Amino acid sequence: MYLLHAQTDAEFNLPYSPARVLKINIIVLNHLFSWVVDLPIVLTYLYWRYWQLGTEKFRRIVSRDVVYSEASKECVLDIYHPDGKTKIPTKKRPTIVFIHGGSWSSGQKLIYTPMGNTLRELGYVVVIPDYRKYPAGHSAGAQLAAQVVLSDLLKKASLLSAKGNTDIHAHCLPQVEGLLLFAGVYNIETHYQHEAARGVEKISAMGRAMGATIENFRRNSPLELVKSHADLFATSEDLLDFAPRILFVHGEKDTTVPLQQSTDMYNMLGEVLPPERRDEVDIRMRLYKKLKHAHCVSALMPSKLGANRHCKPLIRDIMDFVEVPSLDEQA
């Protein structure tokens, strides 16, 4: 994962504006409150990890710290292995790669162990990587995933149209069947404006990670990537053939990343796709009325206080999306 033109020479300055300080204090208090609310999740994880499973069984379920790149010591991942109790046949088990968020500057895979196990118990192979953070994609992870996969899609279409080159495997990523994008940022410019309105744009790493200029914001925005290649989406048969299925999930109570980020991206894809072929590209939107930013992930984590009310509908939407038969299976 990498970003174009990230700013590495910026100094960190604390804001002194009273209004800005007040806004930041409110945000910090909200975060502290959310940590208290999430304490049962932490206790459930510790109980499951050390009392129910112990060390040896955990090692059989999870392969930890598998190196996937020598570029950085952060480039390691965990693999969650489903057991034989699931209904999904072994040879057909989909693999879900979860790229966590953290404002492009923080977060680690260990935090998402309970969620990884929830998906593992559904019968999926789950891969959760750590990756290089700024200054060395759920919300940030959704942006990273969308930017990388859509850039690769456009590269495949360009290679095939320009050269008729069928050996794209040497130059492109393996085929990604689908993107599950939870509460993502797809337009960096408008999200920076949102951060400024909240008074956090100076302490957030996003502006610096994305290059600190409007031009670089647009270069790193999946929405702008799609918009600037509208002609390929409209005319390239190859692009639509390789296009991944996409599921957008967003909560209407999300104040960290506004719902508009997902709706704008969803609508942009609808605009650039030819009307006669829109049904061939599976793009879905699922909105949750009372879901906040972190809850689309934390709802999938077991808690000593019982299952989150969003857990079942989220699992239903994930399974409905992931387990759609491929065209080969349908034939």
TrEMBL record:
Q: Does the keyword Transmembrane helix apply?
A: yes
Q: InterPro entries from the entry?
A: AB_hydrolase_fold (IPR029058), BD-FAE-like_dom (IPR049492), GDXG_lipolytic_enzyme (IPR050300), Peptidase_S9_cat (IPR001375)
Q: Which GO terms describe its molecular function?
A: hydrolase activity
Task: List the keywords (alphabetical).
Answer: Hydrolase, Membrane, Transmembrane, Transmembrane helix
Classification via SUPFAM superfamilies:
alpha/beta-Hydrolases
Q: Any idea where the Peptidase S9 prolyl oligopeptidase catalytic domain is?
A: 184-294
Quote the Gene3D superfamilies the UniProt record gives: alpha/beta hydrolase
Q: Which Pfam families match?
A: BD-FAE, Peptidase_S9
Q: Where are the transmembrane segments?
A: 24-48
Q: Which residues form the BD-FAE-like domain?
A: 77-133
- Could you tell me the superkingdom of the organism this chain comes from? Eukaryota
PANTHER family the UniProt entry points to = AB HYDROLASE SUPERFAMILY PROTEIN C4A8.06C, KYNURENINE FORMAMIDASE
What is the official name of this protein in its record?
Alpha/beta-hydrolase
Origin species: Hesseltinella vesiculosa
Organism classification, top ranks? Eukaryota, Fungi, Fungi incertae sedis, Mucoromycota, Mucoromycotina
